[in-house]
């Protein structure tokens, strides 16, 4: 049992716990995360002075149960992370494989698209989009999905270029296989291990960006319980009640750390044993 | 006179339990070429790395004797071993590109090979480098010294590697498949060069190869390796005139020889694959692929003498013929 | 007898640059090659690395478009056929059985790919034909569900051969099919290729750097140097009376397992052939042990002394005179 295995196990554990918490939130949350109780505002967590067992993580400035909001917030983070990765993955992998496989003009276009994308200031674009169409979960997912595909494209492109030179691609061409077959059955399965690692990195990034956007008021609209939004709403109270931002902050940190550890472990596992 | 290199009962085990080398013994005399021949995975390269103490992490070696002249290499500290490597004990590898540093010129790498071991000035070292490049048949050595490895062709790089190995006047040169990556015409040139250098300098050469043609043309003595063991050891003439181990015979039957092998007949072949040798392996490593295997082969493969200096590891008598054994 | 494959005036040029502002590099990898081969014959193509033999194989198979020239199989121009029709005529076997099989597919999928690509073979038929082919190349039926990583090098090369033959093509282009294999396995694969050729009436282009192997399997041999065939002849003629000085050097450098004969002096200089910089006149003259002044300017292209292609100015119609000129 090396340190690497422990790190990977920790990543699996963290992501697994957050996933279960998010999925089961309606059943395990002690309270309705939207229910306000102005008589019960800013109750500190149970382990602090003035805490109560009724609200293990305390309540926020509107008297909503913090633990319940945190659990529901996990759903938002994971949902946005997953959907943003799926969207950006579809775009980036398609572009990357096309550029890497066909080369020449096609590749020039793909490279130009990647360069353009890297020149776009993420937050500013998100700001503009929200200003025009208003903020909603869908808008956040689409904005992140349409902006985060660059790393997928770069990795898919370079790995495709490597795979393309291998003889089994030439053999498939000589066998009369269609381009679609070659790209989807010969190329894609052999670059997938690299892309899984990118997916974890992008997911972590999407979750952090969602939190940042929500913090700026450009992400998911209140009263949805996003962790970024919780930090934003708590920032006025942070000097007297630091836990209001520390609890969602730590949750965010732990989840992102877990995803990254998971990604590192996957890279080690998939990287080895690919070629004997 | 003492052998330059003497190895007895060398064993190497990998961390996963694989016995890569199982009791290899050999001697290389001054001015002699000893060929270690076998197919991939037979342990020939691992044996040479074990001699140089360059085994990968996790691999362990043991030996009854591992002596370079009078120096016991098993007892040598890594620091002293490093001082010996590249000095009196030199090695060249199959792919010269990976053993040359792409960021330094040929000249500075060759000079460093000398200044690392001897107290000589850089200018003197460069002079010697130029002299040796000329000796290995490189024209305009002065120009080559200023070049980088990628500017040279494969054949030239291998000549540079040989010249570099000679910088400190080694007494033993271990060459691991030195011409496998080269074209046949270049291979012949490089082998000729090695042969003439060896005669002039009295080098002891341990040549590791899979190519029986090279063995026949270069070796005085041959050790045929299979599954981590030397299964037959003889002078080159004796080995090719009277191959005795079934594996040696099988291997010789496999190679097409222009003008000699019949084109309309299939080549001989050895069925099956090399077994993985675990810690509990017993008996003959070749028995699963051998047409003449008997129940006894699962227990032991005795060491027998076909003639003075001609040993083999098999139950069959020295003059066995395929018809009788069947 | 009509030719199974005919190649006419084939050229392939690669253009590149050394860096952004470097001079343009034009590599003439295949520089005017033509031959025809009767059905059932084996053309061995020998030459050293960088001579363009692998590029030639890829251009012939249509994996690289030619810059000039055409390839006809059974009288049909390959470049006018769609991918399915072409696949039925010509198939490859590559050198490295580790990179020529998709590591994520089972052996059955790999061998069945050419059939699947045809689009008109039912799943059951496909399975039957794959199984038949596997047994034909000496693999047991249980291999079908394995992955390439679970097979040895020799077994993988058998799979590659099964894939190449499952459509029963006319031509099989073997690009160094045994170079990555151990000697004992090499012999098995050579025997298998020879056997299948007789059984199925195949025609091979057999590209190799190993002259002993080519001598064993080929009926006709072409010696390639810097993009051209410099000598071509039936195998016995070429090995018994090599006429081009390069052919002689190649033959001399074959190390047969005969102790006591020493390492031959091939007589070639240190100059290394560079396909981006093909010398004028005879392209072999910088390395040629018998080159004369006119070899530097005069081109020997297309010379056929005695009816045999020998692109050398110094080789005349008198075979006996050649052997005096070049010390073998």
**How much is the radius of gyration of chain A in Å?**
22 Å
CATH topology of the largest domain in chain C: Rossmann fold
Estimate the mean pLDDT confidence of chain C.
Answer: 89
CATH superfamily of chain A: MetI-like
CATH level 1 name of the largest domain in chain C: Alpha Beta
Calculate the terminal CA-CA distance of chain C, rounded to whole Å: 36 Å
Number of DSSP helices of chain A?
11
What is the CATH architecture term of chain A? Orthogonal Bundle
CATH topology of chain A: MetI-like fold
**Model regions low in confidence, pLDDT < 50 over at least 5 residues of chain A:** 272-276
User: How many domain regions of chain C?
Assistant: 2
The chain-level structural class of chain C is: alpha/beta
Give Rg of chain C in angstroms: 21 Å
The tally of beta strands of chain C, per DSSP, is 11
Helix content of chain C: 25-40%
Low-confidence parts of chain C lasting 5 or more residues at pLDDT below 50?
A: none
Domain count of chain A: 1
Please provide the count of β strands of chain A: 0
Account of the protein in words:
The complex is a heterotrimer of chains A (276), B (326) and C (328). Chain A contains 11 helices and no strands. Chain A is mainly alpha-helical and 276 residues long. Chain A has one domain: MetI-like (MetI-like fold), CATH 1.10.3720.10. Chain A is elongated, with a radius of gyration of 22 Å. Mean pLDDT of chain A is 86; it is low at 272-276. With 326 residues, chain B is α/β, with parallel strands linked by helices. Chain B contains 12 helices and 13 strands. In chain B, the strands form 2 sheets. In chain B, strands 7-8-9-3-10-11-13-12 form an 8-stranded mixed β-sheet, with helices on both faces. In chain B, helix 4 runs parallel beside helix 7, helix 5 (122-135) packs across helix 7 (154-165) and helix 7 runs parallel beside helix 8. The longest helix of chain B is centred in the middle third of the chain and has 18 residues, at 184-201. Chain B is globular. The mean pLDDT of chain B is 88. By secondary structure, chain C is an alpha/beta fold. Chain C is built from 10 helices and 11 strands. In chain C, strand 9 (220-225) and strand 10 form a beta hairpin. The longest helix of chain C is centred in the middle third of the chain and has 18 residues, at 183-200. The two termini of chain C are 36 Å apart. The model of chain C has no long low-confidence stretch (mean pLDDT 89). The chains are: A mainly alpha (276), B alpha/beta (326), C alpha/beta (328). Chains in contact: A-C, B-C. At the B-C interface, helix 7, helix 8, helix 9, helix 10 and helix 11 of B face helix 6, helix 7 and helix 9 of C.
